[in-house]
Design brief:
By secondary structure, the chain is mainly alpha-helical. The chain has helices at about 5-35, 40-70, 75-95, 105-130, 130-135, 140-175, 180-205, 220-225. The mean pLDDT is about 90.
Length: about 230
């Protein structure tokens, strides 16, 4: 395989930036948004997040099985990376909208949206990191390129952690009425658009070594044993 260029390092790593903006936004502010803005009970929100994490532990290896058994001309990593990004961007934006729901209907909607967020994030995240060994067969080069997405992840976490509330409040002053609902919604919209853009740049500019058949398949029985 041809050595990776600086462009490959950058565009592959950049793909992890907006996805981590989304993830940090959810992990840092979503519970506050649900309780303080939506007015949901803290116990219900905590239970929802616990259930979602348990399901995520089952969902991750299942997605790995799907990616492992995908073979097409576009590439198994790029295929699911694109599908997962588009779905996750939509669900991420939807989580910060009530669509006029109240009471029990809002609890049901929030539960479905949050679990779907974790599932669609997995559809995107598993192929992204699984793609790394496919980029180069040089172990030293692989170690070097793996640092770049983690740098972008740290940059995203820093950006949301330091400037997140300021962006939310600023957006709310422009588009909202002071309750921060519009602020959260508009920040989520910007991140969703940036998410699709950065992943698209990665997919277009980083080539995947497409194989017709995998050297070794992971079976469904092996996945069950892992779980």
């Amino acid at each position: 395989m041809a050595p990776l260029t600086a462009k490959h390092y950058f565009v592959y790593g950049m793909g992890n930036f907006a996805s981590q903006l989304s993830w940090t936004m959810v992990s840092t502010y979503l519970s506050i948004f649900y309780t303080d803005v939506f007015g949901l009970g803290t116990g219900a929100v905590a239970l929802l997040m616990l259930i979602a994490k348990v399901w995520d532990g089952i969902n991750d290896p299942m997605m790995g099985l799907v990616v492992d058994n995908t073979h097409n001309r576009f590439g198994k990593f790029r295929t699911w990376l694109l599908v997962g990004t588009l779905l996750n961007a939509v669900v991420f934006f939807a989580m910060f909208n009530t669509f006029g729901l109240h009471g029990k209907a809002l609890y049901i909607y929030v539960s479905i949206a949050y679990i779907l967020y974790g599932m669609t994030y997995t559809i995107m995240d598993v192929p992204y990191w699984s793609w790394l060994p496919n980029l180069t067969n040089d172990p030293h080069e692989r170690e070097s390129v793996s640092v770049i997405p983690r740098f972008f992840a740290s940059l995203a976490g820093f950006s949301i952690g330091v400037f997140g509330l300021s962006m939310i409040n600023g957006m709310d002053k422009i588009f909202g009425n002071g309750d921060r609902t519009a602020g959260f919604r508009m920040v989520a919209l910007v991140i969703s658009i940036l998410f699709v853009f950065t992943i698209s740049v990665t997919i277009v500019n980083v080539k995947e070594k497409v194989t017709e058949k995998a050297a070794e398949h992971t079976s469904f029985k092996q996945i069950i044993n892992i779980l």
